[in-house]
Write a structure and sequence with these properties.
7-stranded antiparallel sheet; about 325 residues; Immunoglobulin-like; Jelly Rolls; 2 domains; about 10% helix; mainly beta
Length: about 325
């Protein structure tokens, strides 16, 4: 019994030491991260770390570490201080000599990365002082060439203004509005942008809610023989989905509608989505939601892009206002 108690104490002490040395943040060090929300793949991505010492003694920064998920997108180039990116450990950058920060002082570190891959990236960057670290989440969007943009300040030949018994599409006050006049309706507006692999972004606002309406972006829309497309959408009640639509059949590529507490807290101001090969992803307000691949054996490989809204039984008059629609190469 004594041996067991001693072993338990040792395990507890060991666990505390591991937490204290490898998980706990450096006392008195504040870190903030600044980076552009969007970068082109032909450019470098700057990231600025702002470090502040609010302690009453010096703090020594010994290392900056890039989370491995970011290595798919970013490659360290240079910095404003003497950082190195060792070839055998590409996920971190170590100082040739430690960087001291005196009490009450601040220091900005400007990092520059080349871009390896297009799409939505999310991960973390850590600032280490000895074995203690502060980890900050970062995310952003890396895009190819701009293919199309529209602020909807005036009518455009790619967008129709029409009404029928079920839907209404119109230009209103510098925005493009789509309205549903009945229940159980899905309507979209699409056009050919000349590329099937795209990243799309659009500002959104639910003008008239219905309770269960959904809205978002469309890619690979075809209507020659049967209606086929991918829908990347969020709903009023906090759900999101990536759907493959073929005629009247709809298949979720992420296992059905998925709930997000963050979506229900505040309606998204912007929706972003990507379609590249048989891979698809969706996010909102620079937050990643989901990605999926079409493994049905019959992927849709080309088609139009655009906007979509739909509802179920929440009532008519569901209206979404869209603005600042942009499309980039993926």
């Amino acid at each position: 019994m004594i041996i067991i108690i001693v072993a338990c104490v040792l395990v507890s002490v060991g666990g505390y030491l591991i937490y204290d040395q490898f998980v706990k943040e450096p006392e008195g060090l504040e870190v903030s991260v600044n980076l552009p929300p969007l970068a082109y793949d032909s450019e470098t991505l700057p990231i600025t770390l702002s470090l502040k010492n609010i302690a009453d003694k010096p703090i020594t920064v010994t290392q900056i570490q890039l989370g491995k998920p970011l290595l798919k997108f970013l490659h360290y180039n240079s910095s404003s201080v003497n950082l190195e990116g060792p070839e055998d450990y590409p996920d971190y950058m170590a100082y040739e000599s430690d960087l001291p920060i005196e009490p009450g002082s601040s220091r900005d570190i400007d990092l520059e990365f080349s871009v390896n891959k297009k799409g939505f990236f999310a991960g973390d960057i850590a600032v280490l002082s000895g074995n203690r670290r502060i980890t900050k989440e970062i995310n952003g969007l890396i895009v190819g060439d701009l293919l199309y943009e529209n602020e909807f300040s005036e009518p455009d030949s790619n967008w129709t203004a029409l009404s029928d018994k079920s839907t209404s599409h119109s230009f209103e006050e510098g925005e493009y509005w789509i309205k549903l006049l009945t229940e159980m309706v899905v309507t979209w507006e699409t056009f050919d942008v000349g590329d099937s692999d795209v990243i799309m972004s659009v500002d959104t606002r639910v003008e008239v809610p219905s309770g269960d309406g959904f809205y978002g972006l469309v890619c690979r829309e075809q209507s020659a023989k049967i209606q086929r497309m991918y829908l990347l959408v969020v709903s009023e009640d906090g759900y999101y989905n990536i759907l493959k639509q073929e005629d009247e059949e709809s298949l979720s590529l992420i296992g059905g509608w998925q709930y997000s507490e963050e979506l229900i807290k505040s309606a998204p101001d912007n929706i972003i989505a990507g379609c590249a090969g048989n891979r698809f992803w969706i996010g909102y307000d620079m937050n990643f939601l989901a990605e999926a691949t079409d493994e049905t054996g019959n992927p849709i490989t080309s088609g139009n892009i655009g906007l979509v809204i739909g509802n179920y039984e929440g009532g008519s008059d569901f209206t979404v206002a869209f603005d600042n629609f942009t499309v980039y190469e993926h």
